[in-house]
Amino acid sequence: MIKFLDLQKINERYREEIDSRIKKILDKGWYILGNEDKIFEENFSKYLGVKHCIGCANGLDALNLIIRGYGFCNGDEIIVPANTYIATILAISENGCTPVLVEPDINTYNINPDLIEAKITKKTKAIMVVHLYGQAVQMEKIWQIAKKYNLKVIEDSAQAHGAMYNGIKTGALGDASGFSFYPGKNLGCIGDGGCVTTNDDVLAAKVRAIANYGSDYKYHHIYKGVNSRLDEIQAAVLDIKLKYLDSDNQKRRQIAKFYRDNIKNPQIILPKIYDENAHVWHVFVIRTQNRDKLQKFLEENGIQTNIHYPTPPHRQGAYNELENKELPISEQIHKEVISIPISPVMTDDEVNKVVEVINNYD
Ligand SMILES: *Cc1c(COP(=O)(O)O)cnc(C)c1O
Predict the structure, then answer these.
(1) For ligand 1, is residue 85 a contact (CB within 6 Å)?
(2) How far is the CA of 349 from the centre of ligand 1 (A)?
(3) What letters, b where the CB count within 10 A reaches 16 and e where it falls short, cover 223-247?
(4) Of the four listed, 86, 121, 289, 338, which is most buried by Cβ atoms within 10 Å?
């Protein structure tokens, strides 16, 4: 069976480095908000080309902390793509804000910038873009709209560590960005983890305090904060894996290119990209009319797949209250997508087999 994603194999490559760094943490006996966290935050902000990185407990918290840090609350509207993982939208509603869903572009699966302006009201505070599946959003138009209406641009970069728009990395493309380091992400730890990145000094200080019980220094609480921190072991693992992120992403690009050049089946729609460096291929998503049939066929032929995602957020029970359910493009995408294996540890034989099996599907 070709696994969808072999996490054991991914981390096995760094076992010695990880083991020795965890041993040092145990020897030292300092587990939270210590040197490992500081080192990783410095290295990741340097990597992204952004001033601040603040570690937190997970990607959902990162987005939450940004919205809370900006003070967006009751009834404030935040524009967000309809086609995303539900976490993006949960972060908005958890703060009492209203998610305003915008249809994606069927070619990139990312938010369609041409549909944003019509959704802006007096209550709109921000545009939250999602670099979905690993492809950076084309930001020019987003920036123009944000400037015109004085809106914040927030990035959900949970699927796009290392992706670039015009040479600028995701995480440095908006006013603030949230990353997830969930194990399966391109940069993943061995548990839960996340971070906020920003060039905004005021927001950075606020997020750091809110994430640590609302405290700016020990036992001094200026916000009703939360406990959302990146622990030392996760920070250490991330710092080790960060060194290999670019080469891992390069491997993903090679596989993606091979798939795009060699999968030739009239029933399959391959992903479209606007620039090689824009995409880090968190997942390789294809579309087909009869997705369940293809999934079964691949399973029978030893290929594990996944669906990102089967049901759009506006059709989930959690969001019965949403008024705008006329989102046909998002629904079509959710109905037709299927993700095939891609990872830096796939062998050439495995990649070849995936192509061969898909080309034999009818
Ligand atoms: C993974 C993911 C998140 C949430 O990250 P967690 O660390 O699991 O909380 C948010 N948005 C997107 C697009 C994601 O893929």
Answers:
(1) yes
(2) 31
(3) bebbebbbbbbbbbbbbbbbebbee
(4) 338
pLDDT (0 to 100) of residue 279: 98
**188-219 pLDDT, tens per residue?**
999 999 999 999 999 999 999 999 999 999 99
Residue for token pair 């572009």: 105
Give pLDDT, residue 323.
84
For the stretch 44-72, pLDDT in tens is: 999 999 999 999 999 999 999 999 999 99
Four-point Cα dihedral 207, 210, 211, 216, nearest 10: 90
Ligand 1 pocket, mutate which of 180, 229, 234, 285 (most atoms under 8 A from CB): 180
Residue nearest to atom 14 of ligand 1 (CA): 158
| Tens-digit pLDDT profile for residues 163-190 | 999 999 999 999 999 999 999 999 999 9
Q: Is the model's pTM score more than 0.85?
A: yes
87 lines ligand 1 (CB under 6 A): yes
What residues have CB less than 8 Å from 337, skipping those under 6 apart? 285, 286, 287, 291, 307, 308, 309
Tell me which residue has its CA closest to atom 10 in ligand 1: 87
- Using the mean position of ligand 1's atoms as its centre, give its distance from the Cα of residue 54 in Å: 16
CB 299 within 8 A of CB 1: no
pLDDT mean across residues, the chain: 97
Q: Tell me the CA–centroid distance for residue 171 and ligand 1, in Å.
A: 14
Enumerate the β-bridge partners of residue 176: 154, 198
Q: Is 84 in the pocket of ligand 1 (CB under 6 A)?
A: yes
Q: Give the residue from 269, 280, 262 showing the smallest Cα distance to 359.
A: 262
For residue 240, what is the DSSP state? Answer: H
Ligand 1 centroid–CA 87 distance in Å is 6
The finding on whether 158 has its CB within 6 A of some atom of ligand 1 is yes
**Is the shortest distance between the CB of 110 and ligand 1 below 6 Å?**
no
Q: Please tell me the distance from the alpha carbon of residue 199 to that of residue 237, in angstroms, as a whole number.
A: 25
Q: Report pLDDT for 219.
A: 94
Q: Read off the tokens for 21.
A: 């760094």
